[in-house]
Write a structure and sequence with these properties.
179 residues, mainly beta, Neuraminidase, Laminin, 2 domains, 4-stranded antiparallel beta sheet, 0% helix, 40% strand, LDLR_classB_rpt, 6-blade_b-propeller_TolB-like, Wnt-protein binding
């Protein structure tokens, strides 16, 4: 799945399949300006920052069990969001400090370091990503991803895929080759 935020005409947190199909709103109320998003891949939770409402919140992948992690004026200056183990990590754009927020006790916020002009944060560790299993976009015997001549996108499950073409090409009637 692909998760994303939008704060155009109607602010929301959404999800869709990797090919863009099955677009679903998972948060569409009491949300104004969601600017950063992080996923807990193990427990299937979506965290986001709302800088207008000055809050960090969480829901499960279906948009249920919504909770506020922390709220207050300090959220207004946060950008970027990452989750690892018991903590959320973010950057204060006012002073470029990296903050660690306990995701179970949002009042426990610690500044860890400062980085000039930091605007985003990522956690790199072997644990955040679930082990990959074989999927529909694995290379075929000819080395083509999922049998697609250009681009393979996972669809509704790891067993389904959609082929797409690079700019300037159109998908052939076989649903795999690009012309």
């Amino acid at each position: 799945k692909l998760f994303f935020t939008d704060y155009g005409n109607a602010a929301k947190v959404e999800r869709c399949d990797m090919d863009g199909m099955n677009r679903t709103w998972i948060v569409d109320s009491k949300i104004e300006q969601p600017t950063a998003l992080a996923l807990d891949l193990i427990n299937k939770y979506v965290y986001w920052l709302d800088i207008y409402l000055e809050s960090v919140e969480v829901v499960d992948y279906q948009g249920r069990r919504r909770q506020t992690i922390t709220k207050g004026r300090q959220i207004r200056h946060l950008c970027g969001l990452a989750v690892f183990e018991n903590y959320l990590y973010t950057v204060n754009s006012d002073n470029f400090s990296i903050l660690r927020i306990d995701r179970y006790n949002g009042t426990d916020v610690q500044a860890l370091a400062r980085l000039d002009n930091a605007k985003e944060i990522r956690v790199y560790h072997k644990r955040p990503q679930a082990a990959a299993r074989s999927h529909a976009c694995d290379a075929d015997p000819h080395g083509m991803p999922g049998g697609c001549s250009h681009i393979c996108l996972l669809s509704s499950s790891y067993k389904a895929r959609t082929c797409r073409c690079r700019t300037g090409f159109i998908l052939g009637s076989d649903g795999r080759s690009c012309k």
